[in-house]
Amino acid sequence: MLLTVLNSSLRSSLARLKGCSLHRRDFNLLFDSSLSLRDRHTAASMASLAVLPPERLKKPLAVPSRLLFGPGPSNCPPRILEAGAKPVIGHMHPEIFEIMDDIKSGIQYMFQTNNAVTLAVSGTGHTAMECAIFNSVEPGDSVVTAVNGIWGERAADMAERIGAKVNTIVAAPGRFLSNAEIEQVLAKHRPALFFLAHGESSTGVLHPLDGIGQLCHKYDCLFLVDSVASIGGAPLFMDQQEIDILYTGSQKVLNAPPGTAPISFSERACKKIFDRKTKPVSFFLDLKWLANYWGCDDKPSRVYHHTGPVTAFYSLRESLAVLAEEGLEKSWERHQDVAEYFHAGLENMGLKLFVKEKKARLPTVTTVVAPQGYDWKEITSFIMKTHNIEISGGLGPSVGLVLRVGLMGCNSSKSKVDMVLAALKDALRNCHENKL
Question: What is the CA angle 123-209-108, rounded to 5?
Fold first, then answer.
């Protein structure tokens, strides 16, 4: 009976192949008498596929080990990688809910907040940015974004896409805005939301936050802060500084793989979001659903919303544990000390820092003025090829103007600084310099 079925199937496959263009080897397999009918049937089925298994996937996965001293991602310590390799369990299992509760507590500590609606979005920092904007802004709302680099530009773009009336206040690259300038634009446009990047990784600016939350609330405006490049590496106090929505990413100071994005919402922000007249444009990022999945609402049970990236949750939980063990204040101090050591080394080499005011220099990502006469791309390529170290060029308004060096989390140490300085010295000796 089986042979009859196989013969019938083989004849059917040959009929389908009639008139098709086949590789001679594949066609000959169909008539190879040394093969069983079952094997010839398999060959016929394979030959009828329009797309064959790619040869490249037959090679073993190869990933180089590199020193990631760019603006992110940063290197992951073995402890965090090992956490992410633990067995997969269901995204609605009670054990994963315990891990999610651990994460929530860790984020509250890292953000210095008691906000009930605190969670991690499944995605990178961009996902958290969209979660913040898509939930807090409705079509026709007025939004003001502070542009002191690329992230203010991105926030403005996102808000415009959902029908907001967007205005910007722009700081020159490497500079920051005064509270008086911010109040002036708040009074003029009366926005529902004001966006500011605390750590602007494209320009290396650490923007002061004190007093801005109070100004926003004076004009009945929510204060949204991007801390992707700064959290854990520079002081920030969500509740004390009256920040309404704060988010970050997992791949910078936290040293976890990219793919989870901590975010927190104040009671003021939640009131606006949960009282909105229209649904958020994204179901995936709808805060009502996310708050329930993370156990942030008052409902007795959690309802399925999406399949959370459970192994990424393991890594994020472990990275928050590492930060808690060191302590926030010690982490802030270490990043500042290492940054100052690095800045002194750069200046001793004759290189210039892009951010002139010391208090406005981001401790986690340093922007170095691109050395005159050199091609910055050649410098970064030489350092990667010769020293296996990643540093980056500029981004957005700083393209062509700077080199960017990130020393975050486990990479923030004086020994790592010495490695970067040695690589830069070697590059300046060996790369082509245009004397003109």
Answer: 45
pLDDT tens track for 161-220: 999 999 999 999 899 999 999 999 999 999 999 999 999 999 999 999 999 999 999 999
The letter for the amino acid at 103 is: I
Tokens of 273: 């979001």
Question: To which H or E segment does residue 111 belong?
Answer: helix 94-111
Q: Which residues pair with 366 in a beta bridge?
A: 405
DSSP letters of 257-291? PSSEEEEEE-HHHHHHHHT-SS--S-STT-HHHHH
Q: Which two tokens stand for residue 311?
A: 């192994």
- 354/330 Cα distance (integer angstroms): 26
| Closest to 316 (Cα-Cα) out of 261, 358, 364, 279 | 261
Residues 264-317: tens digit of each pLDDT? 999 999 999 999 999 999 999 999 999 999 999 989 999 999 999 999 999 999
Tokens 């100004």 correspond to 215
pLDDT in tens, 5-46: 444 544 454 444 444 444 444 555 545 556 676 766 666 666
- Number of helices (H), then strands (E), belonging to the chain: the values are 15, 14
The single residue listed with the structure tokens 């791309």 is 377
Residue 76, both tokens: 């992951």
CA distance 112 to 98: 21
CA 409 to chain centre: 15
The structure's pTM equals: 0.89
Which residue type, as a one-letter code, is found at position 174? G
Strand partners, 169: 146
